[in-house]
Amino acid sequence: MDYLRTLGSAAVSSLVQKSGLTLPFSLGHKVASFENKTIWSLYDATKRDDSSPVSVFEFEANTPAKKNLLPLAKNALRKLRTVRHPDVLKFMEVVETDTSIHIMTERVRPLGPAIQEWQSKSVQEREAWLVWGLHRVSVALAFLNDSASSTHGNVRVDSIFISSSGEWKLGGFDVLSNPKDDGAVLYTLGSMVPDASTYSSPEVKKGGFSALKELPPAAADAYGLGLLIHFAFNANQGLPATAQPPHSPPTAASRGAIPTSIFPAYKKLLNPNPKARLTPAHFLELGTSHTAGDGSGFFANNQLVKVCAGLDGFNVASEGEKASLLKTLKESASSFPTEFASYRVLPALISALEFGGASAATILPLVLQFGKNVPPDDYPAVILTHLVKLYSSPDRGTRMALLDHLPEYADKLDKKTVVDKIWPNLQTGFTDTVALIREATVKSIILLSDKLNERILNNDLLRHLARMQSDPESSIRTNTCILIGRLGPSLGYNTKRKVLVPAFARALKDPFVHARVAGLMALMATIDCFDVEDIATKVVPSMAFTTIDKEKLVRDQAFKAMELFIKKLEEHAATMPETAAPEIEIFPGGQLPINGASPNTLVNSAAGAAGALAGWAISSLGKKLAAGDLQSTMASAGAAIDRPTSAPAPLDGPTPLMRAAFMSSGIPLADPGPPPLTPMYSSPGAFPTRSFTTGGGAGSRSRGMHLGANKVPTSESVSSVPDWAEVAAAEVEAANELAHASNPWGNDDLMDVNADEGDWSEPSHS
Q: pTM here?
């Protein structure tokens, strides 16, 4: 049992060893500042079942002197167990033996050291805090005196404690007694309380504690309350002069730091005549009244008192009262004590927030504002637990408030909470009938995306976003596209390939201009998500049409996007080999540039490209004929040609287009061996499918190059020629008529391709 090492109490260790009891707490450090102040020792402890912080008051009757005090300890236990009030120390459990008592209460700390700590605060802050605390003590004493008809008999600084919420709690019930109770200890053992004579009232000093039995229950407590006020505001001073005989009234010079608004009531509390003394209940009434004249309203005007009262009745308050309180909280949040803000105001606000309503949008920012002071370890329990519950609320005002302020707490959420508790409720916002909710839901996803699991991210979420791209609201469609772009890098590889391009392509066709711009920007932002092959075959083709969009904003963005993707393609292409396989045909004599261009030359203009294309065809074809066919006897019509199966059907002779190309390049078609070729049309008036024969052999069947030639009759081949071929042949015939001229392109000057202004001018009709 390792926890026994921290008990710090031989009595408790002995108790456990002898009785075999399982303690409901584990003792921590002893509170040294409270030692020897009362009959009790105070420990910070931890509750065993839930590890929550608690306090333990320990009494040990291990000496004869302490055994005499055992009735006081038993009386404190009995009264603390039966008296229940918000301003009274909260009893939880007890471990009791014949000689020891261990009372477990809520976690508290002594008031005395806290008052010293507040000396460093500003006068206004310290005064507000002390008055608020005195208000809570007055409420508790009024309850004991009036409702319980009892006398506390031990009102002093050491009988008051501060809870985790910063509220003052009344304890020290060692001699709490009802005069009608036969077992009352105040009247017989009151003098055994440490320093009893110092804090006792004049009548007790004169006639002993038994004199209190004939007086009103509030008489002794009223005097003790007066002394408490003095020690609270003048912590470094001793007893006031009025506490000593002849008990003269306090003077203005002895007021010290006691507020002037309280000083008149303070003097009445210290009246040496118990029957004329102001009771705690009357003191409370005077402080909460605005109409009692001077010396009243000191509680009613206290900000902390008003805030507590407003929070306690918030759920039943009118809308105007709620708005007023929330305004006060917002304006004064920075001046509240940290404990008060975190553990008194905050829980009350969260409780009010759970009811929803019109105030949700105002309450939630305050909850998060006050939550900034909560320690990181406590934040999930104090703040997040309640916020997560609110996601199940059907109130739209609450949902909007949660989503609007999500950036303030999203980083504190864990993955399990988001997946199991937030997402099931959050996704309903995608199908809400109110567009504002749908849009806020879309915007919230990016803050939670890193906490969504793979199934939600790559399946459920994308299904919702696909529907959002068809939303009637253009802003929602635009934001959906932006969201997909931001989610892109975190999607799975296969999901990226299947989803991104179609999603962005859909946005590029959106009628809303900013949705189209968003689609282009999303493509640019996710460039690293695409393979080079996808960029070339999917991305660039899918966005090319946007370069001629009707909106300049889209066109400008489109060209920037195209430039980005083309640059990446160029970078990749630079790393590729010049060819995937070696050249099959190697021309003798090297490359023959035509018109200043070659197959390996790049061009920068349309005119240059046209010339280069012609040059390649002429150069390649000319060299093939000169090196091969022109130096040999033309093959017969029936000779087979070794050619790939994928190549076009062979031609029976040089086509008119080829003939024109050879003539323009200056390469003669005549073969030194055979006679010159002359054209012959197979059928006048029809498509000029000509057979080439020798000059003296009209009946020869040799057909080395024949446009449209194949192994079918001429009549069949004519009918199969496409229209674009007929037009090309007619143009070549016109060119052949000028073949005898020295310039095969004609004697007229060619169009100046650099004179742009004349390219599309109308011809003259002179």
A: 0.65
